Request: fold
Amino acid sequence: MSIPTTATTAIVRPAVLTGLIGSGIQASLTPAMHEREGAEQGLRSVYKLIDLTEMGLSADALPELLAAARRMGFNGLNITHPCKQAVIPLLDELADDAQALGAVNTVVLKDGRMTGHNTDWWGFAESMKRGLPGVAMDRVVQLGAGGAGAAVAHAALTLGTRHLMLFDRDMGRAEALADALSARFGAGRAVAGSDLGTAMAEADGLIHATPTGMAGYPGLPLPEDMLHPRLWVTDIVYFPLETALLRAARARGCRTLDGGGMAVFQAVGAFRLFTGIEPDAERMRRHFAELTAQRAA
Reply:
């Protein structure tokens, strides 16, 4: 007599291995956002922090790190300060947005090739639309013309800014970004500024796109007395979510927007690229809010 057997078939969820390369990123909430949304979508999602500061490395280590990610089967990488521009020569190709902006925050590894994308600009635009709807955007001052600065400047002009004044410690970098933006959006739409005080006095809004305010870069990016109540102020820093700049701006009567929205929506775009699956943006926003509340408690 044969003994009946019961065969069980385990359901194996698709696996996604991704990570973030940057300096001073231990406080990043991006891993939690990607892993939670992956689980909600039925994926086995692992997201690793590759912190140059913790490893005693600089952006010079990018070739080695990218080669390791390729060998280890990573599906993709997010890229942050100070690597968003340094990574470009190491990639096989660039998507149109990354090519136009000259900055990459998302790298997709597929079929042996590495393709650079930029989801920062869309993330910032979505955050502005939801967080500061209807604000005047005729004249805007932006601090920072690096990789993140290129993305948010593109977003500001896309949203209707007529005159964007760029300031950076490296005047040549500000001038190069202004020239690139004017070539895309029209002559004079973006200029490299030289007199921050005058520009601030005339501005409708301030975009802060430097690392100042992050855990490793404390302080204010400009003199506090340049802030005035007619301004709206937005910061791309999100760890901490409450920066010294935003506190100072609110104390002077400014409308403010933190970097949380940009963090969520750039992650939405990156998740889509890494997995080919449409994420639930509202669910990711709720999760981000939970994470920041837990951190503040």
